[in-house]
Amino acid sequence: MSNTMDIMAALAEGGDGSFREQSVRVGVVYTMTYDRATVAVYDFDRAKAGGLPKGGFLVAAKQMGDENFVLMRILREARLPNAAANDLARQQAVESTANDKPWSEALDDWMRNQVSLHAVECRILGTFLKKDDGEYAYAEDTDNYYAVHDLMVWKPDPNTLDLIINHRHRTNPIALGEDRRPVGRIRFAAAERPTTQETIVKLAPTDLLRRRTVYLGMSRSGKSNAMKITAEAIYRLRESNPEHRIGQLIFDPNGEYAQDNPQDGAGLHRIHETLDLSRQDEVETYGLFATESDPERRIMKINFFGDPLPPHWSDGEVEAALEQLLAGRDIIREIMADETARYTTAFRDVDLAVPPSAASDHGAQVRYKRAILCYRTALAAAGLTPPHWQPSIQNLFSNQVINALKQDANPNSANAQIYGQASASLAAAKENHGQITWNTLASVFSALNQFIADGKSNYSTFENSYIATSSSGESWADPRFKNLLRIFETQNGPRSFQRAQDQHDAAAPNDFAGNVIEDLCAGKLVIVDQSTGDPKQNEKAAERIMWRVFRKQQESFRNAAGGTATAGDLGHILVYVEEAHNLLPRASATDKLSTVWARAAKEGSKMNIGMVLSTQAPSSIMPEILSETDNWILAYLNSRNERNVIAGYMDFEDFLDQIGQVSEPGFVRLRTLSLAYTIPVQFDHFQLNLESSASADN
C-alpha cells in the first residue's frame, strides 16, 4: 500500500471496515497502566494467530466502537494469579505420566483449558487515532486507562501491520517529495514460520538528509548491505524527479562499493545503469591507484610542486598556482609528524601560506618566491618527480649575494670551495635567463645553509651590508627561509618525507579534493576506494576530502544566512563512513571536536551534511553524537557492554536480548526519523537489477 488511505481502503473491504474483522483476536487486556499492559491469552488463540513472537505488535481496542486502537509490543511472558494453581496441576500431571508420554495428555479438558491460560507483558507504545478524513494519526502515549475495562486484543493482519510499520509520524522538512523505497520486510523472530505473510518495510530516504544515522553491529551482520540499500534509495530520488539529486560520498574501506564483487554481483558504482543513465553525469570513483576493472577511476594524487608562479604578483593567482603545493604541504607535515631532529622539525613547521603583506611589498614577494623555490627543491631532492617546467632564479638572487658566496670572499672558511661552486651556479643561471636544474638548486641551497651557519664565512659581512642598504631594514634570509634551508643539512633530510612519492603526480591538473566537491555539488554518487595503498595515506586523503566538504557547506550556510546563496549552493550532501571507530574520537577523548569527522557529525546538520556512521563498537561514538542521532539500524552485538551503550536510547532496551542472541545477517532493529517506535526488519539483499535496463534497451 502506498499510503494510509490505501491501507484504510483495504481495511474497509469487509463488514464495518474495522481492523477487528481483518486481524486475529488473541486475548483480553488483563491489567493496564499508562505504559504497560498484561494480556491474557489462551493457547488456542495463540495457535490460531500463528504464534506471538517476542517483540511482535498487538493492538487493543473495545470489541465494538470507533476505529482507534492502542499499539503494544510484546516484551516477555507474564504470570497471572492462577499461575500457582497451574504449576501444581502441571506438576501432578508430570508425576502421573512418569515421563512415558506428554504430561498434557494426563489433563482433563477442563484442567487443560485452565492451564492453557497464560499472559504476556506488553509495552504500550501509543495510540492510533482515526481522523475525520479517514486517515490515521499517531500519538506517542495514551490519555487514560480504567481499572475495569473491556479492551480486547488482536494480532494485526497484514494491512493493519502495514499501517503500523510504514506510518510516518514525523517528516524531514525538505522539499524532495515523499518517495519511499522498499528496503526489507517485517520480521519478529529468526525462527519465523514458513507460512508467515510478508509485510514490506519502506524507507523514507529524506529521513537521512541533514541527520545522523548509525549502523551498529558486528562484522558480517549486514551493515554494509544495509548501507548500500540506503544509498540506492537516496540515489533513486532522481527517478521520479531528475532535479532531486543528492550528492553522496562513500568512503569504501574494502572496495565493495567501487567494484563488482562476488557478494553483490554488480557494485553500487554501476547504479546509473539501472536508470539507463551515463556514468559521466552520475557516478565517480576515486582511489590511490588505477584498476583494470575501473578504467574511469580518478586517481587521488596531487602535484606537490603546484603550478609556476605568475610573472606579475596577484594574491588570487598566486594562491591558485600553489593550491596543490599547499595541500601537499599538509600531507608532508603529517608524514613528518613523528620527526624529532631539529633540522627536520624546522622544515616541517614552516608556514608557507601567502603573506598578507606581499601584495604591496615587493621585497616580501621576492622572499616568498625564494622560500617556495627552496621548498620545491626539497621535494625534488626527496625523489618526487618534478613537473615539466624548469625552475628559475630570475630576480631572486642578486649579484651582491652571488659575490658574497665566491670562494675568494671566504678565505677563512673550510667550505669556501663549496660556496664558490654555488656562486658559479647562480651566476651561470642568471646568464641563462634564470634557468637552472633542480639538482643544481639542491647543491646551491645546501651551500647556502652552510654559508649562513658558518661563523667563518662572509655571511655576517654580507648581511650587515644588505640590511644597511635595504629600504625595509630586513635580513636577506628571513626565519622562514632559514628553516627551509635546514632540510639540506644532511642527505637524510629530504628522505624524511619520501613516502609522499606515492601520493604525488606531477601531471595532476588540480587537487582531487576539489573535484570531489564539484561532483557532490552536481548530485553525483562519489565512492572513494580505500582498499589499496597505505592505510595512513588513505585516512589522510579521506580527511582532506572531508574538510573540503565541511568548509564548502559551511561557506554555503554563511551565504544563506547573508542572503547571497543560490539554490545550488544549498545542496544536500550525505557522507557514509564505514569503520567509524577508526576515525571518530573516542567517547573518553578530551578534545572531542578536533577532527573533521566529529565536527561534521556534531555540527553538520545545519550545513545540510548528513552523516551515516557504521561501526561494530557503539561505545566508540561520542555520546553527544548518539544523543542527536535520528536514524538507527541495530544488528547483532555479542558484547553486553556494547549493548548497554544503546540501552539508554529510544526504546532499544526492549530488543537487547534479541540483539545479543540472533546473529543472522540483515536481521536488524530499525528506528528512523519517521518512525515513532522501533521495528524489527529483515533487510533485503542488495542487488542491482541491470537486466531490466538491458531489456528496455533491447
Shape: elongated
- Quaternary: single chain
Strand order of the largest sheet: 9-8-19-18-17-10-16-15-11-14-12-13
Count helical runs.
26
- The tally of structural domains comes to 3
| CATH C-level name of the largest domain | Alpha Beta
Largest sheet: 12 strands, mixed
Total beta-strand segments: 19
Which whole number gives the mean pLDDT?
88
Full CATH superfamily name of the largest domain: P-loop containing nucleotide triphosphate hydrolases
Cα distance spanning the termini: 31 Å
Radius of gyration: 35 Å
Percent of residues in β-strands: 15-25%
Low-pLDDT regions: 1-16, 564-569
- The helix-and-strand class reads alpha/beta
Write a brief caption for the model.
Helix 1 (4-11) runs antiparallel to helix 6 (158-166), helix 13 (362-381) crosses helix 16 and helix 15 (416-431) packs across helix 16. Helices cover 36% and strands 16% of the residues.
SSE map:
Layout: H1 4-11, H2 19-22, E1 24-32, E2 36-42, H3 43-48, E3 57-62, E4 69-78, H4 83-97, H5 109-115, E5 117-130, E6 136-139, E7 151-155, H6 158-166, E8 181-186, E9 200-203, E10 212-216, H7 223-235, H8 237-240, E11 247-252, H9 279-282, E12 283-287, E13 298-299, H10 315-321, H11 323-335, H12 342-348, H13 362-381, H14 399-404, H15 416-431, H16 438-453, H17 459-469, H18 479-485, H19 492-495, H20 512-521, E14 525-529, H21 535-562, E15 573-577, H22 596-603, E16 609-615, H23 623-626, E17 631-634, H24 640-647, H25 656-661, E18 667-671, E19 679-683, H26 690-697
Parallel strand pairs: 10-16, 10-17, 11-14, 11-15, 12-13, 12-14, 15-16
Antiparallel strand pairs: 1-2, 1-7, 2-5, 3-4, 3-7, 4-5, 5-6, 8-9, 8-19, 17-18, 18-19
Helix pairs in contact: 1-6, 13-16, 13-18, 15-16, 20-21
